[in-house]
Structures are given as C-alpha cells and as structure tokens.
Design a protein that fits this description.
Layout: H1 22-27, E1 43-49, E2 55-61, H2 63-66, E3 71-76, E4 83-84, E5 91-92, E6 98-99, E7 105-111, H3 114-123, E8 125-130, H4 137-140, E9 169-177, H5 180-184, E10 189-197, E11 209-214, E12 220-224, H6 229-239, E13 247-251, H7 268-274, E14 282-285, H8 288-293, E15 300-309, E16 315-327, H9 333-342, E17 352-361, H10 375-392, H11 397-404, H12 423-433, E18 447-458, E19 468-474, E20 480-484, H13 493-505, E21 512-514, E22 518-519, H14 534-561, E23 568-571, E24 574-577, E25 583-585, E26 594-595, E27 602-603, E28 608-613, E29 636-647, E30 653-663, H15 670-689, E31 695-696, E32 699-700, E33 720-725, H16 747-759, H17 770-779
Parallel strand pairs: 1-14, 12-13, 16-17, 20-21, 30-33
Antiparallel strand pairs: 1-7, 2-6, 2-8, 3-7, 4-5, 9-17, 10-15, 11-12, 11-14, 13-22, 15-16, 18-29, 19-20, 19-28, 23-24, 24-25, 26-27, 29-30, 31-32
Length: about 775
C-alpha cells in the first residue's frame, strides 16, 4: 500500500511517460536471445519428434546417430527419469514408454552444426506400437475413452488441483451455489447453447530459443526468451536433480510471448542435452513449423451453457459445463480450468450456479497459457447467451447488462464478496461510443448492419503464494536503479515500475533506471510474468522498496538535523524540512552518508531499499462446492462493442466502428494502457475472425503463415475507441490493477452478437470467416 505521505508529492502517476525501453528497440540495438554469440564452442541441438498422436515406444536405436562425425551428444528419455510441470507434474523432458502427441520430443542431438544435428535426428530409429487416440475432450472425459495417462494417480499435484485417477480428467473444478434445479421453474426464459472454441497459436514474431551451458561442476546456465525465468530455474532444476542455487536463467528481451513463453515449454531440452556436453553451450532454436504445434497452444473448449431469468430480466440460474481440451499434458491447462471455473458466471450476479470445469487429456498439442488464460473462450459463450436471453424476454440488451452486471458487495459464485468495480460504467461508455439504439443504413443494398456488446472479467490466475520482490539502489548522483524479476515483454512494465518508484521515492521520473536482462542470480524473485499481475503485484513490491529507501533517508537526515522525520519530505530529489526549512539533495547523502551532529563523524552509507509483496489474504476453496472466503485477489472488468456490416453475397464481415472500456483501477500511464487496449483488441479480433489450428487426427494442417492467418494492418478496424475507467483497487499500488490480457476477452462474444443483430444467425464458434457466415446465412434462409 502507498503511504499517505507520498500523495502530496509531485508525481508521474497518471502521466504519459515515454517507454524506457523504446530507444534500444527502435534503433535495433535491443539484444534478444538469438543475438547472443558463443563462438566455435557452440553446439546446435535438434529434436527427434513423435510422428504418432498416441503410441507405445518399443525401442530407440541411436547407434547410427552417435557415430556420425560432428555429433557430440545423443540423449533419450532414459537419461532423464523425472517428471516436470508447473502444477500437475505429468510430462517428461523426453518421452518415456509412450508418446502422446505429434511432435512430442523423443530424443535429442547436439552437433557442431544444425545441418549435422538434423541428419543425426534422421538416423535415430524408433519403433512404435500405435494406440487408440483421443481427439475430442467431451469423449475424452467419458468412461469409454482410452486412458492417455494411466499413471495419473502417481503424479505430484498441488492441493488446489483435483485430478480423477482412472480417467482422462486432469482437473475437475466445481461450483455449487444455491439451488439451480429449483430455480429453473421460476424462470420466465431459459437459453441453452453449446459453443466450440478451436485451438489457436500465439505466433510470436520471435520463435522459442534457448541456449544452455553446464560447467564441469554441474552448474547450469540457460539464456532463454522467457516470461518465467524463476519458474524455469525451479522446475528444470528439480527435473534434473540440480540445486536451484546451481541453476541460473538469464532472460534478455522477449520478442512476443502472450503466454507461450511462460512456464517450461522447450527450455528444458537444451539444458538436459547440455548436461551430457559439459563446458559447451547448446542452442535450440525452433523452426516456425515447430513453433506452431510442438509448444503450448491455446486450448480448445466445448462449453455447454444453460441460463435463465425472471420476467423482469433478473438472472436466476446458470449451469455451465466446460470441457477443456488440455492436450497431451496439462502443465498450465489444469489452472486454466480452475480459473475458468471460479470465473464461470462472467461478470454477472447470479444467485444459483452449478459449474463443472473439466481439464481433459487428449492427443492434441499441449494446452498452455494464452493471453486471457481461458477467459476469451468461456466468455465467447457467456456473452452470447446473455444477449440471447435479453432478446427472449424483450429487454434492451444494454439495460439487461446494467441490471445484472456484478457490483461491489455482491456475493460471487465462489462465495467471495465483490470489490468495487466500474463494469457498469464500462458498458455504458461502450454503448454511447457505438450509438447503441441507433441503426444507420448499410453502405449498399446487399449489406446488413448490426451492433453487439459483451462484458468481461478476469482475475490474476495464480497460486496465493505467487510473490513479488524488488530492490532499489540509490546511486552517487541521487538516481535510482530499480531491480525487478518481472519481464518486459512489450507491455511497458519497466516504464510503469519506473513511474511508481519515482512517485513513491519522491524523485523525477528521469532519475529512475530499470535494469535488465532478468538474471536469476542477481534479480530479485518474481513468480512469473503472467496473469496481468505485474502492475499490481510487482508494483506493490517496487513501491514498498522505494518507501523503504525513502524511510532510511528520512531517518538518517532527521537524526543529523535533530528533527522529527515526520516533518521531512523528499520532493523532486531533495530532502526538505517543513520545520527548519533546510534542504539537501539526495546526491549529497545516499551513498556516502551524512555528517553526524556536531561534525563528530559520518553516519549512514549506501541506501538500498527492499520490498516484497504476497497476497496472503487469498483463501482455499472447497473441492466439492467451490466455496471460500476469497477465491482471487481481484477482478478487472470491462466491455467491448462493435458496429459491423456483412455482405450478403459473400459473408464478408467489416467493422464500421468499435469501442473498448476497461476499469484499470488507476492508469499509471494512460498512453500505455490505451496501447494495451488497442493491442488486445487487435489480437482478439484476429482470433475471432481468422485464427484456427486445423487439427486432423492430431496432425496440424496449417503450420505456416501461408495457411494460418493472423490479422495484419490491412485487416484491423480503423475506428476503435479505447476508454479508461478508474475505480481504485484497495490493495493496488496507487489503486492500480492490470489490463494486459483483458482487451481480447470479450471480442468473440461481442462480434458474435453483432453478427446475429445484422443477419440473424449465431455461429457455434470462431473463426467468423466469410465462408462460415455465408453458409450459416444459407442454412437459416437469409440468403439463397
């Protein structure tokens, strides 16, 4: 929390400060992992991958690969027997006994050139016995489905994840609130729908890359494009039986993450190989094709919804069953399922709730963190059934949202009391921005216009012990060096940390430097750069570190001046006394100290501020009911709206205008907040209209930018208004909370509602391609 004394200081909070990392990136000087040079000692790694979605490994013959000149190391799963995983530890670094998806690592090679490594991989001979695969999560959850993880009961699992041994269910999260069955009879209108949300890829510009080196003492260093250097240190060290003190992760700039560079994906592979090549760095750089299906993907989802309200539009009951396609292992998927469970009502006040959120093993690529962490997928359904329910009772849809959206003091599905939120203001501002209630004529006779709005919420999905820490060093000239463990992945977190440090310390913004790269040997601990939590969590740690340094300075000066420290302040880098009106610049005291009273010697010395933060107030939830006092730290809420036009001859969708509004608590840097809203809007639009991993029998059919479309500048709507709403967060630094993932969460639902308003059809799921829309219009008789 920010102390009251800092509020009267000149402050950069709320100002559009320039990004502190912009110069290096603009001129091309920023160093990414692939830029790091290691000289002729560098070995290149390539991976032998499974061609089967599900099969037993009967034998692996590496003899030909080992004898190829230039090959230094060949490894298999027999070399690394420990499981690895952030939550449910259910996978090996290299497959052992069986493979579970096409592309799973089976063996690894390190050679003096990439070409030789590729040739060696081709020489490895693997004999498989194919097994029956599972490609549908609803079928996978049934008793008839073949088991993908028959040893599920033996896996290490935290106490908030609930796997079902003897099934393919890796986690089953439940909510039981009120009496849903009785409530149905009281409903004047009920809507039931099933939506199917496809897998999508993160497609960062920078593919995954990691370089590992293990010295003769067994100490390991890995340079990785990473959102999670500390989590990677911990997980890889455990899997390889290395002390965390002997495992070092260095994370330079990251060229796009969106969740795919969180946790451990491919980073353990070069480290494992390097343990057999002591003293030589081993580099693994994924090809673009590998990037598409061998690493984390956004999980697919089948969501079955039933929602009812009374004649006045008051929501009475919701039944929500979600089958998450977790893929071959569920390192992140089990927690996405949990997050989907406790957020399963969307931002609505519903007295009777029954939720079953199931993470199901399939023989698809591994489901992992993706911007929104499951919220885009489940909101795609929730946002559309609410729209349909309002129409069914003849109520204006904006009024329906206003009536039912969650407010401060409401009791949520988990039993948690909602904090103050600006979601009602968000939906009102979005409705105003798109002129809700007014329908302009289409631009041509063969076109139809429609408008749609959807609400959203999202909480940081994290364990309650996901802490943050920060260290602030004051330099000889009074400037601040801020050391943090959270990663700058393009969201502007280093800039925001600099603003908060300056404000809390009482120095100008341009006196602050936030240093990288993140290095687990020297950077203070940070759980991960995920969950839109850094502004809030790491921001609290930075503020606490600045207040610690500030207090040290004020105590020192108060003793030297024989004054009350409460009568001292730091303003623009100068210590001032409201009692004696003395002044002294920080640069005169923060390293070398200050003269004792009576010139009897020196006191003080180098000032180093330390701060940490952990939300210890989060409580557990009952495994059978999902009830608990505080399921999450907080929710960020918002709304999004579209006006669109659809061509009846082709089905092509064009956005006339759009608006997004989000309650961020306090915009530390409004320009960066709007940039996040714009970026999330574009990514949400892309996933709604273009993106889909086409999986056929476990094989991805479109693993290239030729066949996998993402929105380009030519596709992005030109009229989009970004709106900031500020209802302060009680435990946020300066009242702030995150908004990194949220702007893409309501997009699918808002577009689906607009499509329905325009042409009267609802699609089962995205992408909302011209072909899909046209065929749906044909089926509905809208066109012939």
């Amino acid at each position: 929390m920010v102390m009251a004394e800092t509020k009267k200081l000149p402050t950069p909070i709320g100002e559009d400060k320039p990004r502190v990392d912009v110069y290096e990136k603009v001129i091309g000087a920023a160093e990414y992992t692939d830029d790091i040079q290691f000289g002729p000692q560098l070995l290149h790694a390539r991976i032998k991958r499974s061609p089967h979605p599900h099969a037993l490994i009967k034998s692996i013959d590496v003899s030909k690969a080992e004898t190829l000149p230039g090959v230094k190391v060949v490894v298999t799963g027999e070399d690394f027997p420990n499981h690895i995983g952030l939550y449910l530890k259910d996978k090996y670094i290299f497959a052992r006994d069986r493979v579970r998806f096409i592309g799973e690592p089976v063996a690894g090679v390190a050679a003096v050139s990439e070409e030789l490594a590729e040739k060696a991989v081709e020489l490895i001979e693997v004999t498989y016995e194919p097994l029956d695969p599972v490609f549908d999560p609803e079928y996978g959850a049934s008793p008839e489905a073949p088991l993908i993880h028959p040893d599920l009961e033996n896996y290490e699992v935290p106490n908030f994840i609930f796997p079902k041994p003897g099934t393919n269910i890796a986690n089953h999260f439940k909510i039981r609130k009120g009496d849903v069955e009785t409530a149905w009879s009281q409903c004047a209108a009920i809507v039931e729908r099933t939506f199917r949300i496809p897998h999508v890829q993160h497609v960062p510009i920078e593919p995954h890359v990691a370089i590992a080196k293990v010295d003769e003492k067994g100490e390991a260093t890995v340079w990785a494009a990473s959102q999670s250097p500390f989590a990677q240190r911990n997980l890889i060290a455990k899997a390889l039986d290395i002390s965390q003190s002997d495992m070092r992760v260095i994370a330079p700039y990251v060229g796009g993450g969106f969740g795919c560079k969180a946790g451990v994906t491919m980073e353990a592979l070069p480290v494992a190989i390097a343990t057999k090549a002591k003293g030589r760095p081993v580099k693994l750089l994924l090809t673009r094709e590998e990037e598409f299906y061998t690493n984390f993907v956004r999980q697919g989802l089948v969501i079955k919804l039933k929602v009812g309200c009374d004649k006045n539009g008051n929501l009475l009951a919701m039944e929500n069953t979600m089958y998450w396609d977790g893929g071959a292992s569920t390192e992140y998927g089990v927690n996405i399922t949990r997050a989907g469970g406790y957020s399963s009502t969307g931002p609505y006040d519903i007295p009777n709730v029954k939720t079953d959120s199931l993470c199901v093993y399939t023989n698809h690529p591994i489901g992992g963190a993706y911007r929104g962490f499951g919220m885009s997928e489940l909101h795609a359904g929730i946002g559309q059934v609410m729209d349909e329910l309002a129409e069914k009772i003849g109520m204006d849809k904006i009024e329906f949202h206003r009536l039912n959206c969650v407010q401060g003091g409401d009791i949520l599905g988990t039993g948690m009391k909602m904090h103050p939120t600006g979601v009602k203001e968000c939906v009102e501002k979005v409705a105003e921005a798109i002129d809700w209630g007014k329908k302009d004529p289409p631009s041509a006779p063969n076109k139809r216009r429609g408008k749609g709005v959807a609400l959203m919420w999202k909480a940081p999905a994290m364990p309650p012990n996901a802490g943050s820490s920060a260290v602030i060093e004051l330099n000889e000239d009074g400037t601040l060096t801020v050391n943090v463990g959270g990663q700058e992945i393009g969201q502007g977190t280093f800039t925001v940390m600099a603003q908060m440090a300056a404000a809390a310390m009482g120095v100008p913004f341009d006196w602050v430097r936030v240093k990288g790269p993140i290095d687990t040997n020297y950077s203070p601990y940070e759980w991960q750069t995920v969950a839109s939590r850094l502004t809030w969590s790491m921001g609290n740690a930075v503020v606490n570190a600045a207040l610690d340094a500030r207090q040290q300075v004020l105590q020192m000066v108060a003793e030297a001046w024989d004054e009350d420290p409460d009568q001292l302040d730091i303003v623009n880098g100068t210590v001032v006394s409201y009692q004696s009106e003395q002044e002294m610049s920080l640069k005169d005291i923060v390293v070398y100290g200050i003269m004792k009273p009576g010139d009897t010697g020196w006191m003080g010395g180098p000032v180093v501020g330390r701060g940490n933060f952990m939300p210890t107030y989060v409580t557990g939830l009952n495994a059978e009911t999902g009830q608990g006092e505080r399921a999450v730290v907080h929710y960020t809420t918002g709304a999004q709206g579209f006006e669109i036009e659809i061509d009846l001859d082709t089905g092509k969708l064009e956005v006339v205008r759009a608006a997004s509004a989000f309650d961020v608590g306090k915009a530390i840097n409004p320009g960066l907040v709007k940039a996040q809203i714009e970026g999330g809007f574009v990514q949400g639009f892309s996933s709604a209209v273009f993106e889909e991993m086409k999986l056929k029998e476990g094989v991805m059919q479109n693993p290239s930018f030729v066949d996998y479309r993402i929105a380009t500048s030519a596709d992005v709507p030109s009229r989009h208004e970004s709106i900031i709403v500020e209802v302060p967060q009680e435990d946020g630094p300066f009242g702030a909370r995150g908004v990194g993932e949220h702007p893409m969460v309501p997009t699918i639902a808002a577009l689906g509602n607009a499509i329905y308003d325009a042409v009267g059809v609802r699609l089962e799921g995205p992408p909302f391609s011209a072909e899909k829309i046209y065929l749906a219009m044909q089926d509905a008789g809208v066109v012939k």
